[in-house]
C-alpha cells in the first residue's frame, strides 16, 4: 500500500498556503491583509507547478483512495488555475475587508475539497471531499452579510444539506451492496446485486455530485446564489466545484460502470441542458443569465460522462471541455466584475467604451456558444464525437439543437455591446478584473487553437 | 544596288537587335532601311531647326521626335510585330500632330478623319499579321513570301490595303487633304520622310511577297499609276498651295508605289529620297509665306528650285529618279499612264511656280530657317545622282525616254507659266469627292449597322436580361406570398414555442426552498425509475 505523502504534494502546497494564510491573517493589520492573497496565490502557483511535474510521472494509487491519473492531473491543474484567477478577482473585491484573509482561505479549502472530489476512488473519501468542497462555499456565499447574500447562502446550504444526506444514504446502500466503498470492490459487487437496489443507490449517490455540478435536480441553487452572492464568489461556485464534481462523476461511471448508467446520465444531461437554455432565454440580469448558462453547460458536460467506459473519446472530451469551460466561464464573470453592472442594458456600447473588455466578453460568450476557434468549440466537438461514438446519436442531436438555441441568449448580450450608449457615463472598469477577463479570453482562444498539440500530447 | 555602293555598304554589315526570344524579332539596318534612316534624320533636323525658329513648344518637339522614332522603328523592323508597333505609334502621333492646335474644332475633326482613315486601312496589317502566324508560322518579313497559297494571298492583300491607306493612295487619298490642318513643319515631315512614305516603303520592302502572289504586284502597279495620274489632275486643279502640294504628294508617292509594283525597287527608293528633300523644302517655304505673310529672296529661290525639281525638269533630281521608275515599268499601258502622270506633275509644279510671280512684301527670315531651306534646296536639286547608273540604279533610264520626258516637262512648265491659267474642274478641286464618298459608303452604313445592332442589343439582349430579372421578381413575389408565409409562420411558431417553453422553464425557480426540495425529491424519484428501467 502506497502511503507516500509526496504523491499529494500539489494538494499539500495549497493546504499549507491556506493554513499559512489563515495564521498570517490572525496577526496582520487589516490594511496589510493583501499579503494573504499573495501567499494563497503563491501556494496555488506552487501547486500548479508541482501538479505539472506530477503529470509527467506514471499513474499510481495513493492511500488506497486517491488515484493519481490523467483525470486527477487535469482536475488539479484546472482547479488550481481557475482558483488562481478567482483569487485575483476576489482580491479586488474584498480589499481591506475585515475578514479578507478568511475569504482567500475559504476559497483555497473549497478548491482542495474539489480536487479531492475528482481524485478519489472511494465513496467515503468522496463524501468527505463533498463536505470540504461545500461548507467553505456556503460561508463564501454569505460573505457579504447582506440580505441577498444571506438568502443565497441559506438556499445553497439547505440544498446542499438535503442532497448531501441523500448522497450519504446512497453511499450506505452501495456499501451494503458492494461490501466495500472502493470503486473496484463496488464494480464486483454490482455484478451480482439486485439492479433495483443498485439503481436506487446510484441515483441517491449522484444527488451529491449533481448538486456540486449544478445539474438537474441539484441546480436550484445556481441562479439564486449566482445572483445573490458576491460576484467573485459566484464565479467560484459556478466554476471550480463543477470541475471536481464532473471528474468524480466520470470516474465513478468509468470505474464501477453500474447498469443503466449511460441512459440515466444521458437523460439527466438532456434535461439539464434544455432546462438551462430555456430558462436563460428571458433573463435580463446577466448573472442569472450566466447562471442558467452554466446549468446548460453542465448538461453538455454530462454527455461524455454518460459515455464513460463506452468510448475512448469520453475521457478527453470531459477533461478538455472542463478546462475550456472553466477558463471561459471565469472570463465571462470577470467581465461582469469589471463592468460592475448586472443588467443587460448596462452593457450597451461597452465595446466603444472599453474595447478590450468588450472584446474579451465577446470572445467568452462566443466561446460558451462553441464558436471556433475557442476552446469550448473543441470540447463540444469531442462531446459530439463521444455521443455518436458511444451510440447515443439522439443525445448529440439534443445537444446540437440546444447549442443552436443557446445562440439566442448569448447574442442578446453581445448585440448591445456594439450599440451606442446614451445617458450618464459608466464608471471605469476595474483594472484587476479586466486583466483577468483578457487573460481568460486569450487562454480560451489559445486552448482552442492549440487543441491539436494539447490533445496529441496527452 | 550598284557594286560601288554595295562596296561601301559591305563595310557595315546588317545590324540586328533581338526583341522577343524565339520569334526572331528585331531591328535590322540593311541596304533599304539605311537610306530611309539617313533621309529621315536629315529631314528631321532641317524641319526641327525650322520649327525652332518659329518657337514651337515642348509638346510639339516631343510629338515630332516620337513620330520620327516610330518611323525609324517601322523602317528597321524585321518582323510584323515590331513593324506594327512603329506603325501604330506613328499613326497616333500623326493624329496628335495634325490636331496640334486642339482649340480649333475643325482641325481636330481633320485629325479625326485622317486618323480614322489610316486606322481603318491598318486593319489590313493586323489581319496580315494574323494570317502570317497561321500560314507562315512566322512574323518575319522575309518569311512572308514563303507562306502557302491561300495564306500568302491573304497576307499580301492585308499588306497592300494597309500600305495604300498609309500612303494615301486611291481610294484613301482624301485624308492627306485633311492632314493639311497641321502646322507646316508637321506637313513637311509627314509628307516627305515619314508616315505617307511608310506605305510605299512597306511595299518596296515586301516586293518578294508581291511577286510571289502574281496579282498583287499588278494591282499595286495600277493603284500607284492611277493615283499618280488622277491625283496629279487633282493637284493641278487646287487653288490653295498647301492643298496642291498635298495632292502632289499623293501623285508622287503613286510613282513609288508603281515602282514597288513594277519591281523597280532601286528607282522607287531613289525617288522616295529625292522627293523627301523636295517636298519638305516646298512645305517649309509655303510655311514661311503663310506664317510671315511675306517673302525673302532665299525662300523664293529655294521654292523655285523645289518646284522645278518637282516638275521633273532636267537635270534636277526628280527628273532622274522618275525616269528610272518609268524605265523599270514593263507594261506599255502602265508606261503610258505613268508618262501622262509625269506630264501632269510638270503642270502642277508649274502652277505652284506661279506663286512666285505674285507680288509679296519682303520680310526678314531668321538664319535658322534660311539654312535648312538652302540645304534642302541643294539636296533637292542634286539628289538625282542617286539615280545614275552605279550609285543606286542598276540600269539607268533609257536615254531617249529621259530626253523626251525632260523636254515635255520643260515644255509643260513653260506653257503653264505662260498661260497662267489652268482648268479647275470641280471633281478635281474636290478630290473626286472621296471624303464624301467614304462618308456615304462606309461611315453612314457603319453607323446604321451600329444603330441597328444597338437596337437589337436594347430590345433582344437587354430585353432578355430584363426579362430574366422580371421573372426573378415575379418568382420572388410568388415565393413571398405562397411559400414565405408558411416558412415564416413555421419559424414564428418555433420562436413562440421556444418562448413558451422558456417561460415554463422558469416556473420551477420559485425562490422558495421547500418547493425546491419537493421538486428535487420528485426528480430523484423519477431518475430512480429511469435507472431501474434502464438497468
From TrEMBL, chain A:
InterPro entries: NADH-Q_OxRdtase_suN/2, ND/Mrp_TM. It is found in: Cell membrane; Endomembrane system; Membrane. The keyword Transmembrane applies. It is a multi-pass membrane protein. Its main location: membrane. It holds the Pfam family Proton_antipo_M. It catalyses: a quinone + NADH + 5 H(+)(in) = a quinol + NAD(+) + 4 H(+)(out). GO terms for biological process: ATP synthesis coupled electron transport. GO terms for molecular function: NADH dehydrogenase (quinone) (non-electrogenic) activity; NADH dehydrogenase (ubiquinone) activity; quinone binding. The chain crosses the membrane at residues 12-29, 36-54, 74-94, 106-133, 153-177, 189-211, 261-282, 289-307, 319-338, 350-371, 391-411, 432-455. Keywords: Cell membrane, Membrane, NAD, Quinone, Translocase, Transmembrane, Transmembrane helix, Transport. Residues 122-404 form the NADH:quinone oxidoreductase/Mrp antiporter transmembrane domain. GO terms for cellular component: endomembrane system; plasma membrane. The keyword Cytoplasm does not apply. Its EC number is 7.1.1.-. NDH-1 is composed of 14 different subunits. Subunits NuoA, H, J, K, L, M, N constitute the membrane sector of the complex. NDH-1 shuttles electrons from NADH, via FMN and iron-sulfur (Fe-S) centers, to quinones in the respiratory chain. The immediate electron acceptor for the enzyme in this species is believed to be a menaquinone. Couples the redox reaction to proton translocation (for every two electrons transferred, four hydrogen ions are translocated across the cytoplasmic membrane), and thus conserves the redox energy in a proton gradient. Belongs to the complex I subunit 2 family. This is NADH-quinone oxidoreductase subunit N.
TrEMBL record, chain B:
Its main location: membrane. One of its GO terms (cellular component) is membrane. GO terms for biological process: ATP synthesis coupled electron transport; electron transport coupled proton transport. The keyword Membrane applies. InterPro entries: ND/Mrp_TM, NU5C-like. The chain crosses the membrane at residues 32-53, 60-78, 84-102, 114-134, 154-176, 188-206, 212-237, 244-265, 271-291, 298-319, 325-350, 371-392, 398-419, 515-534. Pfam families: Proton_antipo_M (PF00361). Gene3D superfamilies: 1.20.5.2700. GO terms for molecular function: NADH dehydrogenase (ubiquinone) activity; NADH dehydrogenase activity. It is found in: Endomembrane system; Membrane. It is a multi-pass membrane protein. Residues 77-341 form the NADH:quinone oxidoreductase/Mrp antiporter transmembrane domain. Keywords: Membrane, Transmembrane, Transmembrane helix. The keyword Magnesium does not apply. This is NADH-quinone oxidoreductase subunit L. It comes from Actinomadura spongiicola.
Amino acid at each position: 500500500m502506497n502511503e507516500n505523502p509526496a504523491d499529494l504534494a500539489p494538494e499539500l502546497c495549497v493546504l499549507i498556503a491556506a493554513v499559512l494564510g489563515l495564521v498570517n491573517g490572525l496577526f496582520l493589520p487589516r490594511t496589510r491583509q493583501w499579503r494573504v492573497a499573495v501567499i494563497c496565490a503563491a501556494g496555488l502557483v506552487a501547486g500548479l507547478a508541482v501538479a505539472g511535474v506530477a503529470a509527467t510521472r506514471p499513474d499510481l494509487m495513493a492511500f488506497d483512495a486517491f488515484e493519481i491519473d490523467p483525470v486527477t492531473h487535469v482536475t488539479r491543474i484546472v482547479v488550481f488555475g481557475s482558483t488562481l484567477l478567482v483569487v485575483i478577482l476576489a482580491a479586488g473585491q474584498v480589499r481591506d475587508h475585515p475578514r479578507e484573509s478568511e475569504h482567500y482561505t475559504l476559497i483555497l479549502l473549497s478548491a482542495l475539497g474539489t480536487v479531492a472530489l475528482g481524485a478519489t476512488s472511494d465513496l467515503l473519501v468522496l463524501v468527505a471531499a463533498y463536505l470540504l468542497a461545500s461548507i467553505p462555499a456556503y460561508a463564501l456565499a454569505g460573505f457579504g452579510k447582506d440580505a441577498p447574500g444571506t438568502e443565497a447562502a441559506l438556499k445553497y446550504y439547505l440544498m446542499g444539506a438535503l442532497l448531501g444526506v441523500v448522497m450519504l444514504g446512497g453511499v450506505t446502500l452501495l456499501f451494503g451492496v458492494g461490501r466495500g466503498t472502493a470503486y473496484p470492490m463496488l464494480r464486483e459487487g454490482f455484478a451480482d446485486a439486485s439492479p433495483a437496489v443498485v439503481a436506487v443507490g446510484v441515483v441517491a449517490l449522484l444527488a451529491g455530485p449533481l448538486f456540486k455540478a449544478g445539474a438537474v435536480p441539484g441546480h436550484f441553487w445556481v441562479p439564486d446564489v449566482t445572483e445573490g452572492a458576491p460576484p467573485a464568489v459566484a464565479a467560484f461556485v459556478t466554476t471550480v466545484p463543477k470541475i471536481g464534481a464532473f471528474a468524480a462523476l466520470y470516474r465513478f461511471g468509468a470505474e464501477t460502470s453500474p447498469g443503466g448508467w449511460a441512459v440515466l446520465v444521458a437523460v439527466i444531461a438532456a434535461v439539464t441542458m434544455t432546462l438551462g437554455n430555456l430558462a436563460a432565454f428571458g433573463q435580463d440580469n446577466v448573472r442569472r443569465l450566466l447562471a442558467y448558462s452554466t446549468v446548460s453547460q453542465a448538461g453538455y458536460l454530462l454527455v461524455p460522462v454518460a459515455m464513460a467506459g463506452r468510448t475512448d473519446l469520453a475521457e478527453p472530451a470531459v477533461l478538455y471541455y472542463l478546462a475550456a469551460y472553466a477558463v471561459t466561464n471565469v472570463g465571462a464573470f470577470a467581465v461582469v466584475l469589471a463592468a460592475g453592472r448586472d443588467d443587460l442594458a448596462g452593457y450597451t456600447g461597452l465595446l466603444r467604451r472599453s474595447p478590450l473588455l468588450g472584446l474579451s466578453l465577446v470572445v467568452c460568450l462566443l466561446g460558451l456558444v462553441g464558436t471556433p476557434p475557442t476552446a469550448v468549440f473543441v470540447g463540444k466537438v469531442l462531446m459530439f464525437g463521444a455521443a455518436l461514438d458511444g451510440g447515443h446519436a439522439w443525445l448529440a442531436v439534443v445537444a446540437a439543437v440546444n447549442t443552436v438555441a443557446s445562440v439566442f441568449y448569448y447574442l442578446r448580450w453581445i448585440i448591445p455591446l456594439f450599440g451606442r450608449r446614451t445617458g450618464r457615463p459608466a464608471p471605469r472598469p476595474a483594472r484587476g478584473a479586466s486583466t483577468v477577463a483578457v487573460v481568460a479570453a486569450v487562454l480560451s482562444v489559445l486552448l482552442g487553437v492549440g487543441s491539436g498539440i494539447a490533445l496529441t500530447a496527452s | 544596288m550598284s557594286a560601288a555602293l554595295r562596296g561601301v555598304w559591305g563595310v557595315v554589315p546588317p545590324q540586328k537587335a533581338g526583341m522577343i526570344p524565339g520569334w526572331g524579332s528585331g531591328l535590322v539596318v540593311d541596304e533599304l532601311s539605311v537610306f530611309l534612316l539617313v533621309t529621315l534624320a536629315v529631314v528631321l533636323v532641317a524641319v526641327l531647326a525650322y520649327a525652332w525658329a518659329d518657337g514651337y513648344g515642348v509638346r510639339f518637339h516631343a510629338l515630332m521626335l516620337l513620330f520620327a522614332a516610330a518611323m525609324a522603328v517601322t523602317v528597321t523592323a524585321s518582323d510584323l510585330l515590331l513593324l506594327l508597333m512603329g506603325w501604330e505609334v506613328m499613326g497616333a502621333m500623326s493624329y496628335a500632330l495634325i490636331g496640334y492646335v486642339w482649340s480649333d474644332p475643325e482641325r481636330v475633326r481633320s485629325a479625326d478623319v485622317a486618323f480614322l482613315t489610316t486606322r481603318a486601312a491598318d486593319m489590313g496589317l493586323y489581319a496580315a499579321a494574323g494570317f502570317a502566324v497561321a500560314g507562315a508560322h512566322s512574323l518575319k518579313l522575309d518569311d512572308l513570301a514563303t507562306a502557302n497559297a491561300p495564306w500568302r494571298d491573304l497576307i499580301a492583300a492585308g499588306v497592300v490595303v494597309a500600305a495604300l491607306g498609309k500612303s494615301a493612295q486611291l481610294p484613301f487619298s482624301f485624308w492627306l487633304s485633311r492632314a493639311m490642318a497641321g502646322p507646316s513643319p508637321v506637313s513637311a515631315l509627314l509628307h516627305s520622310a515619314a508616315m505617307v512614305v511608310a506605305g510605299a516603303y512597306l511595299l518596296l520592302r515586301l516586293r518578294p511577297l508581291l511577286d510571289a502572289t502574281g496579282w498583287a504586284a499588278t494591282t499595286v502597279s495600277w493603284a500607284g499609276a492611277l493615283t499618280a495620274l488622277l491625283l496629279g489632275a487633282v493637284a493641278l486643279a487646287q487653288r490653295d498651295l498647301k492643298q496642291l502640294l498635298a495632292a502632289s504628294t499623293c501623285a508622287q508617292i503613286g510613282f513609288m508605289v508603281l515602282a514597288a509594283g513594277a519591281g523597280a525597287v532601286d528607282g522607287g527608293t531613289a525617288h522616295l529620297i529625292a522627293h523627301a528633300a523636295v517636298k519638305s523644302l516646298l512645305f517649309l517655304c509655303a510655311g514661311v509665306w503663310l506664317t510671315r505673310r511675306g517673302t525673302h529672296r532665299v525662300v523664293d529661290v529655294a521654292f523655285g528650285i523645289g518646284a522645278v525639281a518637282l516638275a521633273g525638269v532636267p537635270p534636277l533630281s526628280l527628273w532622274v529618279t522618275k525616269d528610272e521608275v518609268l524605265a523599270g515599268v514593263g507594261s506599255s499601258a502602265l508606261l503610258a499612264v505613268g508618262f501622262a502622270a509625269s506630264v501632269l506633275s510638270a503642270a502642277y509644279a508649274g502652277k505652284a511656280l506661279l506663286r512666285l510671280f505674285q507680288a509679296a512684301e519682303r520680310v526678314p527670315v531668321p538664319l535658322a530657317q534660311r539654312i535648312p531651306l538652302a540645304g534642302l534646296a541643294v539636296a533637292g536639286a542634286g539628289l538625282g545622282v542617286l539615280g545614275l547608273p552605279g550609285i543606286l540604279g542598276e540600269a539607268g533610264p533609257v536615254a531617249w525616254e529621259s530626253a523626251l520626258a525632260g523636254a515635255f516637262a520643260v515644255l509643260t512648265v513653260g506653257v503653264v507659266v505662260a498661260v497662267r491659267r489652268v482648268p479647275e474642274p470641280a471633281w478635281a478641286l474636290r478630290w473626286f469627292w472621296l471624303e464624301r464618298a467614304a462618308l456615304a459608303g462606309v461611315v453612314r452604313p457603319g453607323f446604321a449597322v451600329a444603330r441597328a445592332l444597338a437596337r437589337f442589343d436594347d430590345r433582344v439582349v437587354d430585353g432578355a436580361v430584363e426579362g430574366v430579372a422580371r421573372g426573378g421578381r415575379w418568382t420572388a413575389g410568388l415565393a413571398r406570398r405562397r411559400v414565405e408565409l408558411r416558412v415564416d409562420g413555421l419559424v414564428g411558431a418555433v420562436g413562440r414555442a421556444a418562448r413558451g417553453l422558456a417561460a415554463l422553464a422558469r416556473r420551477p425557480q420559485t425562490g422558495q426552498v421547500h418547493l425546491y426540495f419537493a421538486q428535487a425529491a420528485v426528480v430523484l424519484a423519477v431518475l430512480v425509475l429511469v435507472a431501474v428501467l434502464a438497468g
